[in-house]
Write a structure and sequence with these properties.
Layout: H1 2-18, E1 24-29, E2 35-40, E3 46-52, E4 61-62, E5 66-74, E6 82-87, E7 91-98, E8 104-111
Parallel strand pairs: 1-7
Antiparallel strand pairs: 1-4, 2-3, 2-5, 5-6, 7-8
């Protein structure tokens, strides 16, 4: 019985340690105007996160690992800032639209 319990515990530990989650991205708009953000992924697909109101943060969306380019189109602004970053599994990324003139972006990252 002890051997069976030990084996089950080992299997559970290995399963937990080996599991991984795809990266995720969200948008936080610290600017004064509504924004649309385009996230170009390493696989060539694009995710659009539209109508992000000033002062709001969207929910996370899964993305693929690899090279990412985020571009924001901000209402009433002629500049569309972009920022590249690399996405890795088991990470959450937040594209932050900063309240600067001209507007700029930064990317925050944290473990899932």
């Amino acid at each position: 019985m002890k051997k069976l319990f030990g084996l089950l515990l080992l299997i559970a530990a290995l399963t937990t340690a080996c599991s991984s989650e795809p990266p995720s991205v969200r948008v936080k708009n610290e600017g004064a105007n509504k924004a649309n953000v385009q996230v170009k992924q390493a696989d060539g697909n694009t995710i659009n996160i539209n109508d992000v109101n000033a002062g709001s943060t969207t929910s996370y969306r899964e993305i693929v690992e690899g090279s990412i380019l985020a571009t924001a189109v901000i209402q009433s602004q002629s500049v569309s800032p972009s920022i590249p970053f690399n996405a890795a599994e088991d990470r959450n990324y937040t594209v932050v639209i900063l309240n600067t003139n001209p507007p700029t972006l930064k990317v925050d990252s944290e473990s899932k």
